[in-house]
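Notes for week 9. Today we move from apo structures to complexes. The key idea is that a small molecule is not decoration. When we ask for a structure prediction with S-adenosylmethionine present, the ligand SMILES becomes part of the input, just like the chain. The input block below holds both the sequence and the ligand string. Read it once before you look at the output, and try to guess where the molecule might sit.
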Amino acid sequence: MKLEQAKRDYYRRRAKEEGFRSRAAYKLQQMNNKYRLMHRGSKVVDIGCAPGGWLQVASKLVDNVGVVVGVDLDKVEPLSKNTITLQDSITSEGFLDRLKAALRKDKADLVLADLSAKLSGIWDIDHFRQIDLCMKVIDLLPEILEEKGSLVMKAFQGDELDNLVRRLKQSFSRLEISKPNASRKESSEIYLVGLGFKGTVPERQVEHAELEPQSEGRLGSSESDW
Ligand SMILES: C[S@@+](CC[C@H](N)C(=O)[O-])C[C@H]1O[C@@H](n2cnc3c(N)ncnc32)[C@H](O)[C@@H]1O
């Protein structure tokens, strides 16, 4: 536990020194080093991008010939010229059209989804809300992600995770489960990395009673890990 606290402090301090808006930036850096997700010229969509640590990492890697489109409920402080941000919810009406307009009708090479539902403190509800947001992101993929493109998606371990993994396995040639060093070991957070998008996604299998996802500002409980 002490070691984990020290690791957390280390990434927090380092983020401050290196000018990153969140220590989550290191998680993306570590996954990019492993899976080579982005390069100069890539087009990236970053869903749930505030305060902008992942945006900073992506914006640097894609350079001035690439583009990054970030989306969040919260307003994001402007970043570099190659980065556009939308203050929006993926669950709001017309969202897909607004995102496609920001992408100028192109599709992305990489979709990042680090978004998290606001925690109620009731484990089952929080887990389901998170999976529900993930499923909504998957629904968008055929319209926003290039065939052979990649996805990085945050999920929490729990009963519904299998359904999510199954759907992603059917949508990508390869699915990896990643726990970057910068993610706390005691957090149930994991990252699903989809490589080689097939261009279509299967229908969502089990429909639950719609729980209005209470999207977060900041995670406040033990799951908070950015
Ligand atoms: C863990 S933070 C993302 C941290 C970010 N990757 C970074 O590096 O700074 C999760 C974000 O998801 C956003 N979010 C939650 N629900 C959302 C929704 N329905 N649409 C868009 N963003 C959402 C929250 O506002 C929050 O800023």
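The chain has one domain: 3-197.
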